[in-house]
Amino acid sequence: MNTLLHPQGPEGEAVYWRRRAVIMFIVIAIIAAISLIVGRVRGDGDGAEAVGTANPGTTAQAQEPGTVPEPTDDGQCVLDDVVLDVTAPDGTEAGQAVELTVHLAASAGTPCSLDLDEHALSVTVNSGTDEYWSTATCTDAAPAGQLALMGADPVPLTITWPGTRVAEGCSDTGEAAAAGSYAVTVEIDGGGYATSQFALV
To answer: pTM of this prediction?
Structure first.
């Protein structure tokens, strides 16, 4: 005990105490460094586990404003996403058949299928409030089945109006449409519509 408290040797007692102090400082520094490293490793492991287990089974999906609707899971078109247009040639002679062209496209630009059996496509010809002809009456002229829309490129459908007035059940009245201005309207059941003007001469 005496030598522990009072070092003996060729050098002075103060020298031995300084050496002991240096050694103790080095040991304390090593212990502190090891404790710091172990603490960081444990902290990183807990953080990774927390990130990996937070909200299990959920996926964050950010939707930008103005996002257009996507096709349904079965590939069917969303009706609000179907763009319609219809045209008829001007200058057709009165009483002659008129080729009406309907254009359909998917505004989202994503291919989809439009079921015309479930969502009927109707085309109607009017002169003012006077209806002359409609595919709702002449159902044989109405397009049916699945129509593939390949995106924003319009798909044309041609529907022929015989140029006469029809009665209930699509019976021909024998009355030819006179020269003048007419309107053709195309509409999807449950969706949108479009109208165009044309003239018979």
So the answer is: 0.60
Task: Write b or e for each residue in 21-46: b if 16 or more Cβ atoms lie within 10 A of its Cβ, otherwise e.
Answer: eeeeeeeeeeeeeeeeeeeeeeeeee
SS3 state of residue 83: strand
Strand, helix or coil for residue 100 = strand
> CA 113, CA 67: separation in Å to the nearest integer?
20
Residues facing 11 on adjacent strands: none
For every residue of 132-188, DSSP letters joined together read EEETTTSGGGS--SEEEE-SSSPEEEEEEE-SEEE-GGG-EEEEEPPSEEEEEEEEE
Mean pLDDT by groups of 10 residues along the chain of 201 residues: 54 65 74 73 51 35 40 77 92 93 88 91 94 93 91 90 92 90 94 94 93
Q: How large is the greatest C-alpha to C-alpha distance in the chain, in angstroms?
A: 138
